[in-house]
Amino acid sequence: MSGASMATGAPAAPAYRKVGSLRRERRWALIGAYAALAVFVVFFLLPPFHMLITSLKSSAEIADLSGNPWTVSRPTLENYWALLTHGSYPIHFRNSVIVTLCTVAITMLISIPAAFALARMRFWGSTVLATGVFLTYLVPETLLFIPLFQIIGGMGLYNNMWAMVLIYPTLTVPFCTWIMIGYFGSIPKELDEAALIDGANHFQMLWKIFIPVALPGILAATIFAFTVSWAQFLYPMAFLVSSDQMVLTTGIVSDLIRGDTFQWGMIMAGALLAALPPLLVYAFLMDYYIAGLTAGATKG
Q1: Which of 72, 146, 226, 296 is least enclosed by beta carbons within 10 angstroms?
Q2: What is the pLDDT of residues 64-103, one digit of tens each?
Q3: What is the domain extent for residue 49?
Q4: Measured distance between the N- and C-terminal CA atoms of the chain, rounded to whole angstroms
Q5: d(CA 103, CA 260)
Q6: Is the same domain home to 98 and 164?
Q7: Is 149's pLDDT higher than 90?
Q8: Does the reported pTM lie above 0.90?
Q9: Residues near 164 by Cβ (< 8 Å), separated by ≥ 6?
């Protein structure tokens, strides 16, 4: 028996050592991953945390440079109350919501049919056109706002928030079309053939088959269009002058900074409130966003 046990137990020792070694490697890899993640989280959450602390301070406490900038002695909501009741912040928020929703709607109405045509219909020059659509997204905004300024001025839309509804799609449509080209291209070709055999036209194929199947990609494009429209700064700064026409990104800077006087408490409160809608969108739709971007990056 002892000889048998030795015969059977001898080869097991290296296997045990190998399993233990793998467990240790995985444990250290997990520890390293969590350590790197902790550093990443702290690094990126420090600015929002400082903004929150500052927004809860009174003007006197903010001006007192002898205090600790990372703590608040007497928290107050007066900055939020003054921002929402006495200034133009609600008007700016409303303008941002209107411009963003209109831009997202226009972007989707253009990008979805364009991506479907370029990905599935395969007409002459479709590949070159698809590449050209994406290349237009790479043109810097600083090269475009001067000619766009002349066009908007000629249309009589200078200092009008509706001009943003016309300008923002020049930023969102190319990239959203490119994302959905990749997603539509990943759908099996057999769906087209089955739909054509059943007598469906291209519009019916798009509405009843491709949009439901490609919903993650469409949501990813929608989130991108929402983010770009909500956070755009250069074009509103160049085209909007009066406070009643401004959106959040320019309204906060224009109304809460007077010469060399910075109303830091209200500025931080306004920035945090402005960041809340994108935060909620990403929190609830992050999985769809990642799935859509991944499909668009690996196909097409």
Answers
A1: 146
A2: 877 778 888 888 899 999 888 888 899 999 999 999 999 9
A3: 2-55
A4: 66
A5: 35
A6: yes
A7: no
A8: no
A9: 99, 103, 229, 232, 235, 236, 239, 240, 247
